From TrEMBL:
UniProtKB keywords: Acyltransferase, Transferase
Phylogenetic lineage: Bacteria, Bacillati, Actinomycetota, Actinomycetes, Kitasatosporales
Protein name: N-acetyltransferase
Keyword Transferase part of the UniProt annotation: yes
Xref: CDD domains: NAT_SF
InterPro entries per UniProt: Acyl_CoA_acyltransferase, Bact_Acetyltransf, GNAT_dom
Amino acid sequence: MLIRDAVVGDGPALARVHFDAWHVGYAGLMPQGLLDATTMERRTVSWQLTLSGERTLRENILVAEVNGTPLGFAHTGPGRDADADGAGELWALNVAPSQWGSGLASTLVRTAHDVLRRGGFDRATLWVLTGNARARRFYERHGWSPDGVAREETIRGFTIPELRYTLDLRLT
């Protein structure tokens, strides 16, 4: 396995990972209408725009590659919440369902922790779907804990309940 920075040509592969992870991982947890509206075409366009555009200061997109094939990604950057107060954020972490349980996600999240630390952050946040027990257990195994903040995010007209998790990067 290789963890590397994303390049523009990764767009289609990251779109596939993102699409598959959402459709398998969120089945029964997110409104089916939202999953149906999340198409490969939309994901591909979104990733192409993200990878070809300018990134914010301290923003990173990591790719986990196995035998030359991107099978996971982590997107990190400065905290986006009004109360971020200098924290970093794990904006997204997705892994191909075929890799769940393989250790790829663990390697990827530990590398994301390192990247955030190297970016000058000593703590970080992430948002997780409230009902996603699998993801919540994963993050908790890696030192993250809920901080008591919840929100309802609206995506394409669908309301999604989320919990915020925090991590003291000095302890990982």
